[in-house]
Amino acid sequence: MLSFRHQASAPRATLDDLETPCALVDLDRLSANLDAMASYTVVHGLALRPHVKTHKSPRIAAEQMRLGAAGLTCATPRELEVMSEVSGDLLLAYPAIGSARVKRVMELPREVRVSVGLDSMIAIDELAAGARAADRDVDVLIEVDLGMHRVGVQSAEEALALAMHVRASAPLRFAGVMFYPGHIREHVSEHHGKLTQLASDVQHLIRVLRDAGLPPRVVSGGSTPLAWRIHEVPGVTEVRPGTYVYNDRTTAEIGSCSWDDIAFTVLGTVVSTAVPGQAVVDCGAKALGREPMRGVAGEGFGALFDRPEVVVARMSEEHGILDLSNTDWRPRVGDRVRIVPNHVCIVVHLNDVIHGVRGNQVETTWPVSARGRQP
Amino acid sequence: MLSFRHQASAPRATLDDLETPCALVDLDRLSANLDAMASYTVVHGLALRPHVKTHKSPRIAAEQMRLGAAGLTCATPRELEVMSEVSGDLLLAYPAIGSARVKRVMELPREVRVSVGLDSMIAIDELAAGARAADRDVDVLIEVDLGMHRVGVQSAEEALALAMHVRASAPLRFAGVMFYPGHIREHVSEHHGKLTQLASDVQHLIRVLRDAGLPPRVVSGGSTPLAWRIHEVPGVTEVRPGTYVYNDRTTAEIGSCSWDDIAFTVLGTVVSTAVPGQAVVDCGAKALGREPMRGVAGEGFGALFDRPEVVVARMSEEHGILDLSNTDWRPRVGDRVRIVPNHVCIVVHLNDVIHGVRGNQVETTWPVSARGRQP
Questions:
Q1: Which of these, A129, A166, B360, B372, is most buried using a 10 Å CB contact count?
Q2: Which residue of A has its CA nearest to B98?
Q3: Do A154 and B119 touch (CB under 8 A)?
Q4: Domain check: are B342 and B214 in the same one?
């Protein structure tokens, strides 16, 4: 297993040798981010089951496991297949709807313990049929909506009804509940108090299930924005943060990390300064995504790492327009910049490889093995 | 060369056999779209140099060439490399800034005639140095900003200065000018009159260059939104539409095509109906992109092909939230939908393969060979 701290170094390339646009990860910051979350969860007695959607790379997943993660969280069959090589305990935090999806889950190596999160009777029936055909135990977590309003049942009573249906659907096993508190940015003042409500809702949910004889073994919650506060919600047993490995402009702006904790940037080149007041870089929507800031105000689609006041104000597919109105900096064609994207998970999905760097040195390059959909 | 009209059929899969999310192209509509643009350009005596960014697939590029295209337009070295197998006349409509980019241009097969669009002295000098080292002729188009305010010199006089510098920088050859009128949606009422201004600007540009003894052989303009009107701009010799092959929600809404001309959809599955008033499909930002409507109002990030009143109102990476407030339709978990994305070029970039369909039949599957950045 590869540690990012002590890597053998081959003859080294520098950032100047890289073709742009490309994705960079600062290896020291990555290590620090991995350590910090591992420590937080140990201190608070929480199981850490990182969501791999952010990095989609077995190399980083293996490092997360080495640092004590209980298992990994995945969103797609592809992520499960790739991650089955580095962890024996995988959660598909996504309903396995559709025969192809169920089949790919059932075909994972048999030594891998698989859990699935879901929120409907249909999802239970499809999964149970697949599990019976494959003669395979599958743990089920009932997904509950605690304010995100994306997926999840709307009440503890609905959760109980699904839990009872799981119990009656061997070889499925009721393991517990999960929720995704992605609507809460506790560090943002308007969100104060939401954590208290969440704690109350979680307590109620656990009580209803316990009173019915179905106490949840697993209560899985926690995103990167809430990672450092989720221990304030009694009963939570597990967290599933993803973004913390790399961080991004949003996690910094909402206060979940500092700007200096951002490990991921997109390296770009200024390709045009012909239009006054702006500079054009080769990082457009196909390199940076077009993600807004989430849960906090913020202009543009990314900001310069070294000059956060300069944002990517507009975009085409292969063009990013840097707004120069808040800076005296006047770049020349050919200058290179490092851009912090608003939302790193999307950017990783746009790249086939990631370059691991320390300062100006490129130490390693790894594939984003779990991107895409194909087996 | 493969014609999409007369394809040998293997034992056929149907849409039900496909795993979601995935990208579908209706082969009959694709053929009709390819034919329509080929006819338009023939009728008006315009050279057709389609931009491959939309499809990134040599199979479709070959069909464009078979139907009379003069050559192809590319945005990246990867696109040039892949398309050099199907066309001997390629335009890089992007400044070749950076030694790696120049090198990849120069290493294209020598029988391929290469043109590059650019807007700075630095770009000319870098390209000239590369061309001299490779002993390779390269045609240059000066990019002019005629209202898009993205790249391009700001006046005819600046264009002339660059053209003169090209002439003095053998083996570069001054071939003409290019512009991208992506700011004009002539079918949208607020944009009426912009075409008249464009025609006047193009006339002035040609006159300034001609008077200086540098008449442009190529005057390259024209996007999909303007494709059907660009013949009204005297002097234009060539068009570079991309989106017309597939079309999307934006091209339909601005009136460049009808809804029935949309060839591209994303096939998705309803995975949750737990939250009232909405249904969740497995097409989030990683499957659909997060593109706004461009140049016209329109809510959401895509709309159902069969029910355009149902839009993808919100998104996470793997979740798309269908707003059910404008419909009586109440989908069940497991139902399948076809979504028309706002901006198809971005969606193609998110996929590794495309499925060619006729009705419910999957006739063929092809790779998006020119996606990504690697050689």
A1: A166
A2: A334
A3: no
A4: no
